[in-house]
Specification:
- The protein is of the alpha+beta class.
- It has helices at about 5-25, 30-35, 40-55, 70-80, 90-100, 105-120, 175-190, 195-205, 210, 215-225, 240-245, 245-250, 250-260, 265-275, 325-345, and strands at about 60, 70, 125-130, 135-145, 150-155, 160-165, 235, 280-285, 295-305, 310-320.
- Helix 2 (about 30-35) crosses helix 3, helix 6 (about 105-120) packs antiparallel against helix 15 (about 325-345) and helix 7 (about 175-190) packs across helix 10 (about 215-225).
Length: about 350
């Protein structure tokens, strides 16, 4: 039916979706007739609703109830009928101020923007930061952290900082540590952690590394410190907004399942994974989610970048009944703002 949906049918579908988004209640034919200025009678609208239900765009929860949009109904609405709301100047100013307040550490920047995004959309906000393996390094330094311990500090161009302990290094002098640090820093120039690890292993195989004590020690320590891949980070704000959604508040088991998912970093990564590499906003409705256990939520997410590199993604998680006309431009603007902030670092 989608290909041949006429103007009258699409208008009925749009009104049903938008009324359901606003009320979370099944929508009746009389309500739609009033919204359309009674240009169509309730009986005519009931026939259109029946056709939309048969085509899979609507469902009727109970025999005596009105209709609710299905995932397919929401998808058609998003792809063909959605009218995006323009952000108010005050909202854009608030997001800029939040980004400015996070002008220090990178994690504080994304927290501030994510917190405000959650408040503006009244949904849970999630920020995913890609693994440091994929981010370009700004500097590498070593410092003694104990008799036998050396601390490796890596700073990414976006401002993210990683610490790794190297055990069993008791006999390195302060002068040697400084030279090793300078050598590793030179190797790290313009490389990601993954590329630095590869370069270290290549240099270790060269004959010069066997005869130059400082170089050999630097490469051995670097290989040891970077042997394990570091995971990415997840920041979540506004979990309480999930509790306030009527479809979740009335179903404790469903609510528990969603809140448990927020505790698992791997689940959040899977939910926002597609947005990480894409330059376009990603909207996953219900069953479209990459996490099969969460068929009753929607995810609106967009990646943010630093130059050609993807740094992560930011998104909103809420019921399938989210107000997409509002949350899509909000997420797009927040992602664009993070890209600008990371470009300037």
């Amino acid at each position: 039916m989608a290909a041949g949906m006429d103007d009258r049918t699409t208008r009925v579908l749009r009104h049903i979706v938008e009324d359901y988004i606003a009320t979370a209640e099944p929508v009746g034919s009389r309500t739609i007739s009033k919204k359309m200025g009674q240009s169509l009678s309730p009986a005519t609208i009931r026939n259109i609703m029946a056709d939309l239900e048969e085509a899979g765009f609507l469902a009727q929860p109970h025999t005596s109830a009105g209709r609710v949009p299905t995932g397919a109904g929401f998808r058609y609405y998003i792809d063909h009928l959605l009218a995006r709301q323009a952000l108010a100047r005050g909202e854009m100013d608030q997001l800029h101020r939040a980004a400015g307040e996070g002008n220090g550490p990178a994690d504080e920047l994304v927290r501030q923007v994510s917190r405000l995004l959650s408040n503006l959309a009244h949904q849970a906000s999630v920020v995913v930061v890609s693994s440091p393996e994929q981010q370009v390094l700004s500097s590498v330094s070593l410092m003694r952290a104990g008799v036998e311990r050396i601390l490796l500090v890596t700073v990414m161009r976006g401002g993210w900082v990683q610490h790794r302990l190297i055990e069993g290094e008791p006999d390195i002098t302060g002068d040697e540590l400084e030279k090793i640090s300078a050598y590793l820093n030179e190797l790290a120039e313009g490389r990601t952690l993954l590329q630095l690890r590869s370069r270290i292993l290549t240099e270790l195989g060269k004959e010069k590394a066997r005869y130059d004590r400082v170089m050999g020690r630097a490469l051995t320590m670097g290989a040891k410190a970077l042997a394990d891949a570091a995971p990415g980070e997840v920041f979540i704000e506004g979990r309480a907004n999930i509790l306030e959604q009527p479809e979740f508040a009335e179903d404790v088991h469903r609510l528990k399942r969603i809140l448990r998912a927020f505790e698992e970093k791997s689940v959040i990564f899977r939910l926002l994974d597609r947005a990480m590499e894409s330059r376009a906003i990603q909207v996953s409705v219900g069953l479209e989610n990459t996490v099969e256990e969460l068929p009753d939520i929607s995810v609106v997410a967009s990646g943010y970048r630093q130059g050609a590199s993807s740094v992560g993604s930011i998104g909103l998680i809420g019921p399938v009944r989210m107000d997409y006309s509002r949350v899509i431009p909000l997420v797009e603007y927040a992602a664009s703002l993070l890209t600008t902030m990371f470009e300037d670092r």
